[in-house]
User: What shape does this take?
Amino acid sequence: MIWRLIYNLILLPILLIFGFLGSLLNKKVRTGMIGRMKSYNQLKDFMVSKGEGKTIYWFHAASLGEFEQVKPVLTGLKEVEPHSLSIVSFFSPSGFNHVNDDHIDCKIYLPIDLPWVVKKSLQLVKPAKLILAAYDVWPNLIWEANSKGIHSTLFAARFSEHTSKLFPVIRNFYRNVYSSFSAIYTISEPDHDRLQRILFSQGKPIVRVLGNPRYDQVKLKADKFTQERTESVLLRPKRLLVGSVHTEDEQVILESVISLMRNIDDLSLIWVPHEPTERVVETIESFFKQKHFSVERLGHNDPDDLDARIIIVDTIGRLSQLYWSGQIAYIGGGFSTGVHNVMEPAIARLPVFFGPRYRNFHEAEELIADGGGFSIENGTDLYLGIKELFEDRSAFIKASYAATNVIHRNLGSATRVVRNLIHD
Assistant: This one.
């Protein structure tokens, strides 16, 4: 009870103040806040039109990346219970705006985590199960689900070695939250062990190690795309894919990328900004042209149909397929918020480079351990690492196969999660 008071009287008001202030300054934050205010009415309309008397599963994903974990579980659950309905909530506009999936019956922003808002939302929907992916856990949502006897599951749970959730006072808070779940499925044994240190012999929840369903989703997307792309990675154009690039990545790698382009005559580049707004695309386009490279925007074209040495991606949703058009990838985010999806280039057999902020990303750690991924601290690391792989065929092939093997070794998690969701 004490932690609920502290959260609702101190922590949540602080979060809300930052949220409202942020919405005044940032369009993305403002879009999310406005969306959250509409969520209850959207749920009400859904229940009136479709949901009355139906079995409903409520999934939550923070953003587009976390939906890649939700998707194979959502698909598997629909196969087992085809007459059930699925609500999927998002925290970030990047998820809400860019996810369109036939298995979703109702798409909303996660309601604001105020106790009365959460309570009336759960009373309205009465979901059979509340299913959260990865890390975006909101305390009032979990506490209220627990008090109403709604089964709640956290899957693909990750607890890094240096997580603040193991600090004494913070651990007590999260012990209260996590012990209110019905089940928690971790990615790996170390995650399981750290969770047990947080829970400290609580009788609840059920805790299992079931892996990361995101591997299954990456493999599924690759299978659909590779029917006509079975050639060896070395038969593709000598092309570097730079994906999900943040400003912080640009500051570190841009000059090294230019050096690679000048020193390797047949090397071409696909550059994919994290958010390809017109301003961002224009800026990077101008930069490369000033360096005297031919530049084109991808638009809706196939990259192999364009003649420019540098192709800038100006749309969303192409990246997972573009990896099959190159030989090596650099994935952004590792110098700012944390590295983005390294699994999509890995399944395409690309050695993957990324920045140093990867410690909370199990797949990136596995790629490094197997030799298919490489963390860089600066632009020189990137230049030397890529140049070595292009010059050493044996090292390139070894890294390529290692990257793909990480994916294949981790398949099957989605089926395990669905099976346990039904039985736990």
